[in-house]
Design a protein that fits this description.
- The chain is an alpha+beta fold and 214 residues long.
- The protein has one domain: Immunoglobulin-like (Sandwich), CATH 2.60.40.
- 18% of the residues lie in helices and 37% in strands.
- It is built from 4 helices and 9 strands; from the N terminus they run H-E-E-E-E-H-H-E-E-E-E-H-E.
- The chain has a 9-stranded antiparallel sheet with strand order 6-3-2-1-9-8-4-5-7.
- The radius of gyration is 17 Å and the shape is globular.
Amino acid sequence: MFQRNVLIAAGVATLLSCMSAAWAGSMESTTTVHRFTDMTQVKGAEATLMRSNSGVAMKLSSSELPPSEAVTVWWVVFNHPENCSDQKCGENDVFNLGADEKPILNADGSAPLNVAGIDAADISILRADGHVIDQSGNAKYVAGLVKRDTSEAVVGPGLLHPISAEIHLVVRSHGPVQPGKLDDMLYSINGGCADKFPNPPCTDLQYSVFMPPK
């Protein structure tokens, strides 16, 4: 196990180095990571996004993640952020929310997607990366997203406007690793979790927001 962790760490370091070299000269911004529970900042955590005309790349380092759980990161792309409600892109553009800001479930208990909001802002949700968290609770994620690539999309047309899109990174736990289900937990948005919304034990833990460059 120790050797495997060393190899993974070395691979991540090499990929980060290659990303920095390949994306030299691109638009780059770094921001903070926040908790979903109270929107407070995760100390010492940060995320960086690099933009070019052909796509985007990200690296996210965080802490306070649950050891021994499968934790993934997802792109949430608002291709037309100017069409978000109240000129601010957020959960209410993706889900139908009530006055208490909690999702209004469909009659069958399925996810209450805000179809009109998703269409207006051309929202896409796509897988970025995933790991099993070690006992430190720390993790590094890296991923790239090519323009119009929908190979790992849950919803939407992919990244249409790499420079002007508003991009959120969402860190999502799938709970403790379940025998025979690890691939599903690391590669699908509700892998290892209940089919019915809100899909326990899946839960969104942290997020970062990248506004379009001015």
